[in-house]
Every structure is written in C-alpha cells, then in structure tokens.
Write a structure and sequence with these properties.
Blueprint (H helix, E strand, L loop, with lengths): L6 E9 L14 E10 L4 E9 L9 H7 L3 H5 L4 H12 L6 E3 L3 H13 L9 H4 E3 H8 L8 H8 L10 H17 L24
Parallel strand pairs: 1-4, 4-5
Antiparallel strand pairs: 1-2, 2-3
Length: about 210
C-alpha cells in the first residue's frame, strides 16, 4: 500500500575537542554533521549524508583525531558553518522537517554556534518542539533508570553498531536504527516531532 512519507532528519555532530581544557582562545566547534533521513511511515532509512565543516576558532587536536577520525587537513577543506546550515535548509528541508539526535547536545551546540557567529538557526522554531531527544524516548520506552550512550542502547535493543563510533555519519545511521526500533515498539509517534517533557541535557553526553 502506498503511504505518505513521514520524513525525519536524524543528526549527529562531531566537534573539536581536547583531552583537557581547550587551548587559550579556542572553543568547541562543529566539524562534521552526519545526517540520516528516515521515512517513519515506511519504517526505513532512506539515505545517509556527511557534511565536513571548517572550524573558525579552533583546530583539530590529536585527541580529537583519535576519537573522530577527522584531521585538521580534512576539515580545512570543509564548508563554513554558515554554509553547512544553509545546506541543511536547502538540501534537507531542515526548517520544515522534524529532527532528532541522541541527547540534547547537538541542539545546544547548533544554538550556541549560531548565536556566536550570527548564523540563522537552520531548524524549525521553537527549537525544542522541532527536535526530539531520542535518548530520552529510548530510556522511557525501555524503562531504564539511566540514559544510555548510543552504543549501549544498540546493545540493549539487540542492534549492531555499524561503522565507526564517533563518526557523525555512522552515528546518525545507528541512531536512526534506534529510532526505527522505537517506532516499531509504538514509542515514536509518526508525524509528531514533539519531545515528551524529559529533562534537557546541557552538556555533551559521555559515551554518546
């Protein structure tokens, strides 16, 4: 039977990071946006995408390269953050399409970086209504006491971790599999982007 697509953008970002405090004058910036488009009605992942972003106020540390696989040489060839946001709007309908991430870190990072660079926020407003914290939904659906990282959630759901953990493109693909698992369990409302009233997570979740 034909269906009307109910498309969702699942996003995972990687940012410049350090083992300790950032060097003087540097701050964490998005260097990769991984995006998987999910058709909730058809229960399938439609496509996967990767945007490499050139940082303006930081460099990729050796620690960051070890974690994400991204190098300074690679990100220097990426697009600016403003261009990346425009791509989200023009190519992935980000202002109209609901989106989800594992935790609230990604949403907060976009908000902070948009404010700092006077870049238009690429997603729908109000921000919390357009975004779903998939970690919170998973925790509620599985009756867990603590919110698991993405890799832990995959184990709980009996799903494989595909690709490299802390690759934005691969993590978005894996988070999308968890979203579909929740949809199959009836815990993810098709056609709704509203997040239940779970507490926000202001910082980067460890083991996301």
């Amino acid at each position: 039977m034909d269906h009307e697509p109910a498309l969702l953008n699942v996003i995972d970002v990687e940012a410049t990071c350090w083992e300790g405090q950032p060097p003087p004058g540097e701050t964490g910036e998005i260097i990769e946006i991984g995006l998987t488009v999910v058709d909730l009605a058809a229960r399938r992942r439609v496509s996967r995408h990767r945007i490499v972003v050139r940082p303006a106020r930081s460099r990729v540390s050796d620690f960051c390269t070890e974690l994400t696989g991204l190098t300074q040489a690679e990100v220097v060839g990426g697009v600016s953050f403003a261009e990346a946001c425009q791509m989200l709007v023009e190519e992935y309908d980000a202002r109209e399409r609901p989106w989800a991430s594992w935790g609230d870190y990604d949403r907060h990072q976009f908000e902070r970086q948009c404010r700092a660079g006077s870049v238009p926020y690429p997603f729908g407003r109000p921000a919390q209504a357009a975004h779903t914290n998939a970690k919170a939904v998973f925790t509620e659906a599985y009756g867990l006491r603590k919110r698991p990282g993405m890799a832990g959630a995959l184990r709980i759901a009996g799903l494989p971790l595909e690709g490299r953990h802390h690759s934005g493109e691969d993590d978005a693909w894996n988070i999308a599999a968890l979203v579909l698992d929740l949809a199959e369990r009836g815990a993810w409302a098709v056609g709704s982007s509203a997040t239940p009233p779970y507490a926000s997570e202001a910082g980067r979740p460890t083991g996301n």
